[in-house]
Input
Amino acid sequence: MTQQQQLLFACIDNCCYFKLSGELRYTNASGMDDLVERLFASELNCQQLVVDLNDVSFMDSTYIGLLASLARFCQQQQLPRPTLFSTNSDVNELLYSLCLEQAFDIVQQATTAAIELSAVSTHDYSEQQHGQMILRAHQALITLNDKNKAAFQPVVDLLKQQLK
Output
């Protein structure tokens, strides 16, 4: 997968598949942010979500917040918890440290699904758009639990102040 293919996506039979790879940072998260926004705007007909993180080597808190947004979408729509596949011990440690197991069914095994996925490209975001995305992602993270709220509330408060 090239740098441009860090996010692959397909929606088949009302199931949305996300395959992520490489180093996932806020600087390359605009494509994922767009998909999350499309979910909440009901532009995608998803009754179930599957996320494959097996090829991810690093994720920053913004990207984890975007994952938390997927879980929040499922909760709001009263859908089953999303399934998250990850075999990378460093990534799993991060997911568990932020309590994502409370919102996802985490499966620590490889995936073999032969699904036709399409690359989702990143968009050029302005500084304001990046700030809004980072704010939304961290707001999703703090809604998961009190530990995340204590850790990320100062980030949310600062971003809100800066984005006025």
